Amino acid sequence: MRALVVEKPGRFSVETVPDPAPGPGEAVIRVDAVGICGTDIHITEGEFPPTPYPIVPGHEFAGEVVALGPETAGVRVGDRVAVDPSLFCGRCHYCAIGRGNLCENWGAIGDTVDGAMAEYVKAPTANCYRLPGHIPAAHGALVEPLSCAVHGFDRLPRQLGTHYLIYGAGTMGLLMTQLAVAAGAASVSVVDTNPDRLAVARTLGADAATVGADDLDRPEGWEIVIECSGSVAAMEDGLTRVRRGGTYQQFGVAAATARAAVSPFRIYNDEITIVGSMAVLHSFGRAVDLMGEGVIDAETMITHDFSLDEFDEALRTFRAGTGRKIQLHPGRRAAR
Fold this sequence. Notes:
It is built from 11 helices and 17 strands. The chain is α/β, with parallel strands linked by helices. Strands 3, 4, 5, 8, 9, 16 and 17 form a 7-stranded mixed beta sheet that branches. A 6-stranded parallel beta sheet has the order 12-11-10-13-14-15, sandwiched between helices. Helix 4 crosses helix 5 (171-182) and helix 4 packs across helix 9. The longest helix has 12 residues, at 143-154.
């Protein structure tokens, strides 16, 4: 099969590699669509420490089950599925208490083992979720980032009539915006430096979208502030915008060495809750249901699709910030 192989940081190419063979409890999926995530960029640049090289990246994907190993259950050949890439050990302290996303032996398809930027990929059948018939594969590949957003909401207090402030109108910020609207928000405000993305945020339900929170008339602050950009400046600003007794969530991924200045006195005096949210946890099936019910406008979210041979162009588009969700279709060949 053909696959995008990152041989080492900074060096990748489309190569012919052996087809995956399913082991016990595993399925082989023909990949119809796979999204590009910031983690994939970090992997190509050598900035994601768990990744071994060489590796085939790609953890946001959907496709058709084409082969099953022994001792499988839950899916059949021919099923269209989205796949939770999480590989938890099931034995460590965090797995034992139901927090597998913090697994001491954490792994993920496309991050620590070969992933879906290939014509075929293997995955545990327990991680495969059948897609409703009306969901196209491209929308199915959006389920994984949506499941991360659903877990983010699991970490937040929820009450009808809450006012939300969201930093970042990329894929994750726009997903969080739509979930906040669906959760009965009184208002959702979005901050981003990209005017085009702000326009999309308004289309997807944001009541206000602006380049800075100073432009928003809410001096008392917001009950929920969600940082989705990974920017230290956004974090520092966001923590000043939380209403007394409110919650700040760090959802965006900053560099491991990044540091932010905060006011410990304000956290104490205003009883501000600070929470993190990392990856997927007991949220994938619900994300499939939300996608199936049309809670997310997937057509607006997905803006570009490329073949494996066009990965360079896909990376340039991602880094330029000119699109939203960018996907690869491994079965497609580049136009000559």
